[in-house]
Amino acid sequence: MIPQLCAGEAAAIRGPVAASCRLHAGVWFRLLRALLDEASLAASTQNAHGKDVLQQIWQETGHPERAGLNVWRPYEHMGDEVREAMLDAAATALQLAADGLITARGRLSSALHPSLHYVNDGDEPSPYRNEWRDAMAAIEEAFTSARTDPAAARQLLGLLTGGCRTLAAFEQERSYLFGAGVPADFLPSARELGRHDLI
Predict the structure, then answer these.
(1) What per-residue string of b and e applies to 140-179 under the rule 16 or more CB within 10 Å gives b?
(2) What CA–CA distance (Å, rounded) separates 91 from 133?
(3) 3-state secondary structure the chain
(4) Cβ neighbours, 10 Å, residue 21
(5) Which of 16, 26, 25 minimizes the C-alpha distance to 104?
(6) pLDDT tens string for the chain (199 positions)?
(7) CA distance 171 to 157
(8) Alpha carbons 172 and 33: distance in angstroms, whole number
């Protein structure tokens, strides 16, 4: 069962490592639940390292170890003051892990470490000349000219149809230019362009 938290408590718990990674809320609540359970464990259930870490966390909070619990209880059955102390211990554990003062272990520990792999949001534009960008700009300029200048349209049609071997391929390129906004009046037929070799 997930502990009942108000928005402020959830933000306080999430705050220390929020900048290092983004996680689904369900993962944060599972992590919180695990931290609350571990903070309430008796020292006798821990190895030497675990005891030292729990002691360090409780010393940082200023509360007595286990918030004064003598017998383990689920978070939901604790009194308000004990719950608040447990949340403080969980937040302290997150802060200590984020600061690298303790090492998080277990299945959810990766949530406390910044991701080593990230998705590239894209490269910054290069300050150097880019041939592809220059070529695309020249092509766009040729199309813009062809939309207003019959000679430019004729020249562009000749360039695009130079490799055509059939009349159908020629007409396909001519239709492409018409679809790209070049007026049909500016686009000569294959015969008008001198292409008598087309099949």
Answers:
(1) eebbeebbeeeebbbebbeebbeebeeeeebeebbeebee
(2) 51
(3) CCCCCCHHHHHHHHHHHCCCCCCCHHHHHHHHHHHHHHHCCCHHHCCHHHHHHHHHHHHHHCCCHHHHCCCCCCHHHCCHHHHHHHHHHHHHHHHHHHCCCCCCCCCCHHHHCCCCCCCCCCCCCCCCCCHHHHHHHHHHHHHHHHCCCHHHHHHHHHHHHCCCCCHHHHHHHHHHHHHCCCCHHHCCCCCCCCCCCCC
(4) 14
(5) 16
(6) 333 434 444 444 444 444 445 667 777 788 788 888 888 887 777 788 778 888 888 888 888 888 888 888 888 888 899 889 888 888 888 888 878 888 777 776 666 665 555 566 677 767 777 888 889 999 999 999 999 999 999 999 999 999 999 999 999 999 999 889 999 999 999 999 999 998 8
(7) 10
(8) 65
In this structure, is the dihedral angle defined by the CA atoms of residues 7, 11, 14 and 18, taken in order, positive or negative? Answer: positive
User: Cβ atoms within 10 A of the Cβ of 12, count?
Assistant: 16
**Assigned token pair, 97:** 């892990």
Q: Which residue has the tokens 């009046």?
A: 185
Residue given tokens 């059955």 in the structure block: 77
